[in-house]
Specification:
About 40% of the residues lie in helices and about 15% in strands. It is of the alpha+beta class and about 450 residues long. It folds into four domains: about 110 residues, Phosphorylase Kinase, domain 1, CATH 3.30.200; about 120 residues, Transferase(Phosphotransferase) domain 1 (Transferase(Phosphotransferase), domain 1); about 50 residues; about 130 residues, no CATH class. Helix 3 packs across helix 5.
């Protein structure tokens, strides 16, 4: 017999049935009547949102009109099918709420169930928790990159804002995820009109969100209430132009095709097709690349090692595999395949390190922890003026983690002007000559501990 109040439920395989929840009550009345309720750091929402735990997995429940809940569920499934960064839709519930008892005559509501994005942070946490200062400006690049990825895939957000975005740390950077899709649409290709309208909405919403936050905490000078949205837009436009620009190719310049593909790969984008069409300039052709997603390094790492990682994590891990490949080539006096180096790296470095890091994992993604150890190793090596090696870095990292009073809150492990640096992303290719522009000087960034939730 279904629970009181429940009229329909649709749950994907691999998740609980949620039948033990008090569906006869509005979410606002669950406090004290549902033992599964948990509190996690959260952003603002115009609708009632609660979080429930089943074992180690946390789910978000959002109450909406039934038609809106169904529409958002479908859009989120579409984002998942296109492998875009967004929360995962788990289920959809219809329930009559408001009256306790067997004869339920209350109003029917829709409840969207999504899986909580582990290790993620709402933007307010980035501003209100000590130790997260260095991530605040990275929020701009994360937002711009997210919008580019979504628009390339034909996604019109319709309500892009800081509150509708979650941020997950990614080897010292931030990876942004879409959370709210009530007003969103999926298209085969997004028109320029829709795309520009989305950017207008983003600017307005970002200003509103920061204005609300400025009334609570002091914002850093670099994040002006009215300049931050336009700043995100400028970063978006630079990246969009770089991805979508066309290059003239002369008959003897076929090498530029490979250069262009490598440049986009270095930015993290996978290239699905290359179109070459007559340009009207004599023998010249115009080259247009079709970018599919920004998961190039993630796919490459997975194919080599089977590991799942975020974009920047994958880039750093691949860099270490490439370094090991160069070392082995020198030692053996012969070239070895990258797959061989990846196998050696997995067996000799990653897996043994992961085993030693288990006591401080606290639910954090292992790829992120490993990247933190690498960053700590670079700091120790800089301080010692020599390569200290991986094992001493692991030991020192674990000792620092043990001394943390509250590992569930992200705090700085190491600070000061001599903090380590990570390589910045490969700069865009100059439209004039196809050469790389000078990379900006890397910013000092201390190692931080993982977060216990968003």
């Amino acid at each position: 017999m279904p629970p009181i109040g429940l009229t329909a439920i649709q749950i994907r395989q691999g998740h609980p049935d949620f039948l033990d929840l008090p569906w006869n009550l509005p979410l606002a009345e669950w406090e004290g009547k549902c033992k599964r309720l948990v509190q996690v750091p959260r952003g603002l929402s115009r609708h009632e949102v609660l979080f429930v735990s089943y074992g180690k997995v946390i789910y978000a429940l959002k109450e909406l009109p039934p038609r809106v809940a169904k529409r958002e569920y479908d859009v989120l499934r579409g984002l998942e099918d296109r492998e875009l960064p967004a929360v995962v839709a788990v289920g959809l519930v219809r329930a009559r709420t408001g009256v306790e008892g067997a004869d339920v005559e209350g109003e029917e509501s829709g409840i969207l169930i999504t899986r909580f994005l582990e290790g993620s942070l709402p933007y307010r946490t980035l501003f209100m928790n000590q130790g997260l200062e260095r991530y605040r400006e990275r929020l701009l690049d994360a937002m711009a990159s997210l919008l580019v990825r979504l628009h390339l895939a034909g996604f019109y957000w319709g309500d892009c804002s800081l509150s509708n975005t979650l941020f997950r740390r990614d080897a010292g950077e931030l990876q942004a995820y879409a959370v709210d899709a009530e007003t969103s649409e999926l298209h085969e290709k997004l028109s320029d009109g829709k795309r520009l309208h989305d950017l207008d909405i983003m600017e307005e919403n970002v200003a509103g969100g920061l204005a609300d936050l400025a009334a609570m905490v002091a914002l850093p000078p670099s994040l002006d209430v009215f300049e931050t949205g336009p700043n995100i837009r400028k970063r978006y436009e630079r990246l969009w132009e770089e991805i979508n620009k066309e290059l003239p190719i002369a008959p003897q310049e076929s090498y530029r095709i490979h250069e262009r593909i490598r440049a986009l790969n270095d930015l993290g984008f996978s290239v699905g097709e290359v179109d070459l069409v007559a340009s009207g300039e004599g023998d010249h052709l115009r080259m247009r690349t079709i970018v599919t997603d920004r998961s190039y390094h993630r796919h490459q790492l997975h194919s080599l090692t089977g590991l799942e990682a975020e974009d920047r994590q994958a880039t750093l891990l691949l860099n270490e595999i490439q370094e090991l490949k160069a070392t082995l080539t020198k030692e053996l006096n012969r070239s070895i395949p990258l797959s061989t180096a990846a196998f050696r790296w997995l067996e000799d470095r990653f897996n043994p390190t992961a085993q030693k890091l288990q006591p401080v994992r606290d639910g954090t993604d292992m790829s992120e922890l490993y990247c933190q150890v690498l960053e700590h190793k670079w700091f120790l090596s800089e301080r010692a003026k020599k390569d200290v090696g991986l094992q001493p870095a692991i030991d020192d990292y674990l000792e620092l983690r043990k001394r943390q009073k509250d590992p569930s809150i992200a705090v700085l492990l190491i600070g000061g002007p001599s903090s380590p640096t990570l390589p910045r992303p490969v700069p865009p290719i100059s439209a004039a000559d196809g050469k790389q522009e000078p990379a900006p000087a890397p910013e000092p960034r201390p190692v931080d501990s993982p977060s216990g939730g968003r």
